[in-house]
């Protein structure tokens, strides 16, 4: 079944590309829609076409959905207002959809690397679903505004269902989203790390993500991302288990000038941050379980199993995002007085190695940024909450401070 | 004859070359009795530098609690020229990166396990 869905996506993408609708001179995200509307105009019922000054898709144009339901929003003013929302407010984030489509086309049809094809295509597929959700929300706003700003049609047809396939015609070239928060959006680097060609992987919908799990990497704070990735691949994992790695200096140690954030695994791909045998005390519904799908390395759907345990509790890795701070925040010593593990890159007995204040703020900013993307993300935990471990060392002592900081800068997490 | 010679040579190499777990066992001995001359056998040059040099390493390990304890050593995975070896002592575990350097393994860093 999923393979058909996948093929249908490729087909719809190709169709969209073939239409070459995005460069017709219309402003912003209207471009594609105008073109689509023009192409459909001949079949638009004349009565509805005449009664509309403007439709959602351009002057005097209607798009027939089917004979019974015709889209006729007639909301130029509200549309203008929303253009302002998208284009004139301070924007911090944009997605170039056309380039994403091209990426999909390239990766899904040309790339001979099966792992890359499987993982990236599905990451992109999920991105499109995210866009779909976003637009669904914003079209509702347009619909509401329409009542205030008119003019309106005699009959106000409902919008067509915005499933991933019917949605293509509404997709914008660029989306701008206003940042309502006070926090700075961290610059996140996506290193090109290799993936494990023998490992399956699972993709989840963003609604399932509700918790951040903090780690330290247990390495030197100047360790390379590739070596961490290699280790995790050697364990049989798909790639680095954490979704994000923060490279930073320890407190009172300014050897690294600034904090760097790396996205080492797409957050929509289930991570390996909580342990294979860690489960949340939460029973997912059947529909929630459908929001996880697993694939072989060659991109074929695979049976999704072991997502819940015998009691019906969901695997913690399925609902969490892993953030690791590079470094070793545990004390040195084979059996140190506080019982933490031995590690020659740890700090000597009696000393303390902490997160610096700047990193506390940067992590809080990253968390707020992630909460905006994943609205159910509201909890912060540490690795040792899931299994017996010294990880994340003294970072555990900074967690309350991180929570406090998230509240200060405009989002909301709890321990 | 030549074939047997090659087999014998490779066997002797594998017999005499220290495996990654051997090196970690050496490290355990070093924890108990840190000696500067052992450092080059156990730690890679890179890792010695990272730890602050030989003197610093000796100083660090001398500060350990010398209580007698038992350890178990287990290779948990490998990738290319690198082995990952875990030491367990009671409830405590630590994973080491051991990289092959001129035919022998040396501790080249530590890394968190899951």
The neighbouring-strand order within the major sheet of chain A is: 7-11-10-14-9-15
Shape, principal axes of CA atoms of chain A: globular
Rg over alpha carbons of chain B: 16 Å
The largest chain-to-chain contact, stated as pair and per-chain residue counts, equals: A-B, 41 and 34 residues
Note poorly predicted spans of chain A. Answer: 1-101, 134-180, 334-342
| Number of β-strand runs of chain A | 15
Helix content bin of chain A: 25-40%
Give the helix tally of chain B: 5
Strand content of chain A: 5-15%
Class inferred from helices and paired strands of chain A: alpha/beta
The beta-strand count of chain B equals 4
User: Quaternary arrangement of the chains shown?
Assistant: heterodimer
Helix content of chain B: 40-55%
Q: Helix- and strand-based class of chain B? A: alpha+beta
Provide a count of the helices of chain A: 11
- The SSE string of chain B, one letter per element, is HHHHHEEEE
Could you tell me the mean pLDDT of chain B?
Answer: 81
Q: Roughly what is the average pLDDT of chain A, rounded to an integer?
A: 63
Summarize the structure.
Chain A has 415 residues and is α/β, with parallel strands linked by helices. In chain A, 34% of the residues lie in helices and 13% in strands. Chain B has a four-stranded antiparallel beta sheet with strand order 1-2-3-4.
Description:
The complex is a heterodimer of chains A (about 425) and B (about 110). Chain A has about 425 residues and is of the alpha/beta class. In chain A, helix 5 packs antiparallel against helix 6 (about 115-150). Chain A contains 11 helices and 15 strands. Helix content of chain B is about 40%, strand content about 30%. Chain B contains 5 helices and 4 strands. The N and C termini of chain B lie far apart (about 50 Å). Chain B is an alpha+beta fold. A 4-stranded antiparallel beta sheet of chain B has the order 1-2-3-4. The model of chain B is unreliable at about 10-15 (pLDDT under 50). The chains are: A alpha/beta (about 425), B alpha+beta (about 110). The interface of A and B includes residues 337, 349 and 390 of A.
